[in-house]
Amino acid sequence: MRAVKKWRYYCDYCKKSGASKYHMERHEASCTMNPNRYCRMCDYSDGLRVPVEDLVAAIKNGKPDTALKRLQDLTNCPTCILAAIRQSKIQDGLFYLSDFDYAKEKNAFWRAVNADTWAVDSTYL
Fold it and tell me: Where are the domains of the chain?
C-alpha cells in the first residue's frame, strides 16, 4: 500500500479549488469576486478597463431598473459586468439584472472579436 499527500489550492475569493498552483494563481488574479481583479477579456476589447468599484457603484446608484443599461454604458466586457453583479452582493434582489445572460453575452463578444481578427480586407481580393 502507498499513501500520497497532494496539495490542494483554494481561491481566496470564491469556492474554486484545484490541484495546480499555477492555474489557481491565474484564476485568483482574474476571479470575478476579486475586487482588484485583472480582466483578461478586456485585453481583447477596446482596451478600456473600468475599475470594479465604479461598476458596482453604477449598480447601487440610480434607478434599479436601469442598472444593467448603466453597466453596459460603462463597459462592453461581459466578464466585468458579471464581476460587478457578483460583487454588489445584492444580485439576488435585482430581478432587473436577471436579463443579463453571461453565456450569451460572452459568445457575442467573442464572435465580434473573432470577426475583427479574421476580417479580410477586400482591397487585396
Answer: 7-38, 39-117
